[in-house]
Amino acid sequence: MKKWLLCLRSPAAFLLLHTLICLGLGAAGAATPPPALDVNGDRIPDIWALRYQAGTLSPAADSDGDGASNASESSAGTDPLAAGS
Fold first, then answer.
1. CB burial readout 9-40, b (16+ within 10 A) else e
2. 74-83: per-residue pLDDT in tens?
3. Of 26, 40, 74, 81, which has the highest C-beta tally within 10 A?
4. Predicted model pTM
């Protein structure tokens, strides 16, 4: 097996690759990138949930009490557990 394929065995590496493709870095000429990976269907990108360890948080909740729902925090790319973000 090729060495670069072995790195995709890690879930984090796979999600990073998927995110790069979604951003258009791997899909030259794509007019609209595909949506971010969301395996559990909660409308929160899995890469964001992994980054902030937010996989069990409800999208509608405001876990840090800053007035923004976890779904809004994921769209903005901010930390759902830090009110200052």
1. eeeeeebebbbeebeeeeeeeeeeeeebeeee
2. 989 899 999 9
3. 74
4. 0.59
